[in-house]
Amino acid sequence: MDDVLAKINERLRIAQIGVSVEQIHNRLYLRATLPPKPNSTKNKPYQQRIALGIYASKEGFKRAEAEARLLGGLIACKNFQWESYLKIPAGESLESQTIEDLIQRFEKYYFQTRERNHQSQTTWVVDYWRIFQKLPQKEILSAENILKTVVATAPDTKTRKRTCMALSALARFAQVEINLKPYKGKYSPKLVTPRDLPTDATIAKHFYEIESDSWRWVYGMLATYGLRNHEVFRLDFRAIAQGDYIINVSENSKTGSRSVWPCFPEWFEEFELQNVVLPEVDLNQSNAAIGHVVTTWFHRHAIGFAPYNLRHCWAIRTLEFGLDISLAAQQMGHSAKVHSELYHHWISHQHHQRAFELMVNKSNRPQVPRILGHQKIVKSSD
């Protein structure tokens, strides 16, 4: 075990984390230069230990190194707060708290390690809180009720994968030993059944059938820029109103700020997107809540397809136009890997053929080599 500990601390030293892992008897601790604890008589940072409350096991060492890196990041960003690490008063230990109380403590810890904004609030609600609500709220968290909640989800699904991720985080926080990796399954976006996407002509036809000026503008933006539902309300509206067809999605969106180009660019003028008209939606809501408002409007007004289908169509359209996958992925706000996994489903033979024709008809495409002075090879007949 001494060798394992030495290797951990060597990695931390090379990475300049500023935190080391110590073993005292069979328990693990973090050691770093930290500010004085609340009510301390000292007024300058000094070397202190933080008890992790975990054993010196294989999994324990792994978690201790992760905790060391987290602590180092908090110190470097000047976001360290003792409240997240001080021992809980007697009678309120994590082991004796109900799941309901534990979730409240985890939420407080979660937002102490990141800024609370529309983006992080949506992540908390969708990826953590909703899943935590499936646990028995009045019980004590245990490996048994965690596993029961996991296996209640369908295997090899996005829900199962997300549930394992969230409950693993809660278990680590509560120091409950459980390994959910075997239960995550083989979910991948590649396994999702391709949607029946509307044609571009259908998309344009629906635009002119929408009576509301504001929702027609929202629809046009989704169709032209492939935005997520809530991102229509997280834009630089002033620039759009001044005629800038390259839109800027704000950093409060799911994946931070980015620029997006129109596809088709003609739709910016045809749909009169420069005339920004927003529906009455509370912009102080979370991204998820705003996105739900858009989805609900589409459903109630019988558009015939979900708003996300407009995003999928934008992705397919960029492939037909020949836009590099990595560039399209950046504009959509995800990685090239995710982009390929999600959208290669929808590349039909027709899409391939159209992309091929565009490619070979480019005036600046590479030309086939012409060999000067060559003679045609004629096969001799014996």
Describe it:
The model is unreliable at 88-93 (pLDDT under 50). The chain has three domains: 2-84, no CATH class; 94-187; 200-360, Intergrase catalytic core (hpI Integrase, Chain A). It has helices at 2-14, 58-76, 99-112, 118-132, 143-151, 158-174, 200-209, 213-225, 237-241, 266-270, 287-300, 307-321, 325-332, 336-343, 349-360; strands spanning 19-24, 27-34, 46-55, 247-249, 258-260. The strands form two sheets. Strands 1-2-3 form a three-stranded antiparallel sheet. It has 382 residues and is mostly helical. The protein starts with a helix and ends in a 22-residue tail after the last helix. A hairpin with a 2-residue loop joins strand 1 and strand 2 (27-34).
Number of separate structural domains: 3
Helix content: 40-55%
Low-confidence stretches: 88-93
Structural class: mainly alpha
Strand content: 5-15%
Radius of gyration: 28 Å
Q: What is the number of helices?
A: 15
Can you say what the CATH homologous superfamily of the largest domain is?
Intergrase catalytic core
